[in-house]
Amino acid sequence: MCSVVVENLAKHYEDLRRGRIVALEGLSFVARPGEVFGLLGPNGAGKTTTLRILATLLRPTSGRAVVNGYDCLTQPDEVRRSIGFMSVNTAVYDRMTAWEMVEYFGLLYGLPRDVLRARMEELFNRLRMWEIRDVLGAKMSTGMKQKVSVARALIHDPPVLIFDEPTAGLDVLVARALLKTIAELRDQGKCVIFSTHIMREAEKLCDRIAILYRGKILAAGTLPELREEYREHDLEELFFRLITQVELENGQPTVAHQESRREPCDRNTVGTEHDTHTGSPALNRPT
Ligand SMILES: Nc1ncnc2c1ncn2[C@@H]1O[C@H](COP(=O)(O)OP(=O)(O)OP(=O)(O)O)[C@@H](O)[C@H]1O
């Protein structure tokens, strides 16, 4: 049984300045219960677009996405009840405490009071949130906010969890704790879709990885399968080889070329921003 089925998904944006942007082109994959499915790609690859379509926040231009048996276009309410979505932009309200925020979302999902109370206590225990129970959003550190966002995504105990670069901006300790929580959720049978541009995260956490670049999946499989297929042990080398090949085919300056003009970069990231989690600079955004 598959928790998430993506078939031939395409998404075009009409951008006033840049014209038509093809963000996704013929994307297909499936993800099952009890696995972390990783979307690994640099900035602009189409990760957020994919996850926002799965979360019913965006309509695809064509193709189909099914979550927990529900079609994202025609059954959006059922899809929303089936997922927990968390990204670095998930809002934490300044004037609510941690407890109030999680409770608020539980009520929005229609949980009865007694069920909600039990669920909140379980989550506050699991995520070690009791010490921030009465802290206002405005007074929270990034790590505290992240915990609230995770609790908010889990409050209705959904079978599918979608994490869009959840460790962005977190220090290494908070990021590790979050990855551990995600692994535990997977072990409990949740289907987790996880996007990242950090190689080490993908290697450590993901049961299967899809390498996404310019809206297309260049390769997908378990890490051992990818290593075997491309005869390359190092995920970063494998990643660069795939991307360089696409750029050569498109007649564009290769990523490797751009890289050679930069400072040596950390071997664990591909992206634009300075990554606070690994402290590593990364590559230029593809244009
Ligand atoms: N609302 C929008 N209007 C126009 N173009 C967009 C819009 N949202 C995304 N894009 C473009 O679509 C492409 C894919 O973007 P997307 O945000 O999905 O990638 P990503 O892999 O999540 O990257 P990042 O790591 O930077 O978030 C990029 O070229 C981006 O500029």
UniProtKB/TrEMBL annotation:
<comment type="similarity">
    <text>Belongs to the ABC transporter superfamily.</text>
</comment>
<dbReference type="GO" id="GO:0016887">
    <property type="term" value="F:ATP hydrolysis activity"/>
</dbReference>
<feature type="domain" description="ABC transporter">
    <location>
        <begin position="4"/>
        <end position="239"/>
    </location>
</feature>
<dbReference type="InterPro" id="IPR050763">
    <property type="entry name" value="ABC_transporter_ATP-binding"/>
</dbReference>
<protein>
    <submittedName>
        <fullName>ABC transporter, ATP-binding protein</fullName>
    </submittedName>
</protein>
<feature type="compositionally biased region" description="Polar residues">
    <location>
        <begin position="278"/>
        <end position="287"/>
    </location>
</feature>
<dbReference type="InterPro" id="IPR003439">
    <property type="entry name" value="ABC_transporter-like_ATP-bd"/>
</dbReference>
<dbReference type="InterPro" id="IPR027417">
    <property type="entry name" value="P-loop_NTPase"/>
</dbReference>
<dbReference type="Pfam" id="PF00005">
    <property type="entry name" value="ABC_tran"/>
</dbReference>
<keyword id="KW-0813">Transport</keyword>
<keyword id="KW-0547">Nucleotide-binding</keyword>
<dbReference type="InterPro" id="IPR003593">
    <property type="entry name" value="AAA+_ATPase"/>
</dbReference>
<keyword id="KW-0067">ATP-binding</keyword>
<keyword id="KW-0536">Nodulation</keyword>
<feature type="region of interest" description="Disordered">
    <location>
        <begin position="251"/>
        <end position="287"/>
    </location>
</feature>
<feature type="compositionally biased region" description="Basic and acidic residues">
    <location>
        <begin position="258"/>
        <end position="277"/>
    </location>
</feature>
<dbReference type="GO" id="GO:0005524">
    <property type="term" value="F:ATP binding"/>
</dbReference>
